Amino acid sequence: MLDEVAVKRYVVPLREGGSLPGLVEAEDLASYVMKFTGAGQGRKTLVAEVVCGRLARALGFRVPELVALDLDPVIGLGEPDPEVQGLIKASGGTNLGMRYLSGALGFDPLAYGVDPLEAGRVVWFDALINNVDRSWRNPNMLVWHGDLWLIDHGASMIWHHNWRGAPAWADKPYDASDHALARYAPDIAAAAAELAPRVTEAMLAEAVADVPDVWLTDEPGFDSPDAVRRAYVETLHARVATIHERIALPEGGADQARPSAPGWLTPGAGR
Ligand SMILES: Nc1ncnc2c1ncn2[C@@H]1O[C@H](COP(=O)(O)OP(=O)(O)OP(=O)(O)O)[C@@H](O)[C@H]1O
Ligand SMILES: [Mg+2]
């Protein structure tokens, strides 16, 4: 289970995020990025954050600590922005918190190098969870104290929006041509050899166990939260063994995915 902490104060919206995540302070005196159950993207975004965030951690990736944030909507009463106030009003109860990495920078491919092994591990992981939201336009990675951190797994596991079609996802390819790390010559084979044997059903079950029941109840086609949990485990596990064979990297090699530095930053340019 995720640790549960109560929200004490809503601080400020993080305007970059499409789902209008907010920075909050909690009763444990820590700051969290809060993702709201009442956001337009719905609770499945939060389920994906927990399943994939926990899985990523278990595989050794850096992911901010996740907690369940208990929100009393009264906190929103003094909020001047009606959009934020509406979101808080619609999100009483359990929301998702991610430990705020104060001072973290957005991943910048021109400023941060990633070795092929690390790039391969991230691309392989994103292929497993079918993450469509780690492109070079929107990398959803942060650099904090010199290390790469993964955030924002809310747009993964598209199959959970239509469970009847989920079994077919076992054999579907993953298009990594736009992936933020495609340019670093990701060593997919090495990543698969290292990570795939570790993604057992037991390990997936542990990750899925952390999803709060309230986000899994009344899922059409399932009679209990645990039945939904089993569906996540089965669908992910069916992809593990062979997903590396179906990862499509940019045609013409890694350089195709490399946005270049502007001329004024390139030594000798313009001369
Ligand atoms: N744990 C964190 N620590 C510091 N900054 C964070 C953290 N999580 C998110 N951010 C910042 O907030 C932004 C929005 O967060 P995130 O990408 O998770 O939200 P989103 O609404 O899902 O965004 P998107 O528009 O990509 O769908 C990030 O790009 C990053 O700048
Ligand atoms: Mg994002």
Written description of the protein model:
There is one protein chain. This protein has helices at 43-58, 82-89, 116-129, 188-195, 201-209, 225-240; strands spanning 3-13, 22-26, 31-35, 66-71, 93-99, 105-106, 141-144, 147-150, 174-175, 247-248. The longest helix is centred in the first third of the chain and has 16 residues, at 43-58. The strands form three sheets. Strands 1-2-3-5-4 form a five-stranded mixed beta barrel. Strands 6-7-8 form a three-stranded antiparallel beta sheet, with no helix packed on it. Strands 9-10 form a two-stranded parallel sheet. The protein has two domains: 3-104; 106-257, no CATH class. The radius of gyration is 19 Å and the shape is globular. Helix 1 (43-58) crosses helix 5 (201-209), helix 3 crosses helix 4 (188-195) and helix 5 (201-209) crosses helix 6 (225-240). The model is unreliable at 264-271 (pLDDT under 50). The chain has 271 residues and is α+β, with helices and mostly antiparallel strands. Strand 1 and strand 2 (22-26) form a beta hairpin. The protein has six helices and ten strands. Bound molecules: adenosine-5'-triphosphate (ATP) and magnesium ion.
Using brief descriptors, characterize the structure shown:
10 strands; five-stranded mixed barrel; 2 domains; binds adenosine-5'-triphosphate; disordered C terminus; binds magnesium ion; alpha+beta
Quick overview of this protein structure:
With 271 residues, the chain is α+β, with helices and mostly antiparallel strands. The chain contains 6 helices and 10 strands; from the N terminus they run E-E-E-H-E-H-E-E-H-E-E-E-H-H-H-E.
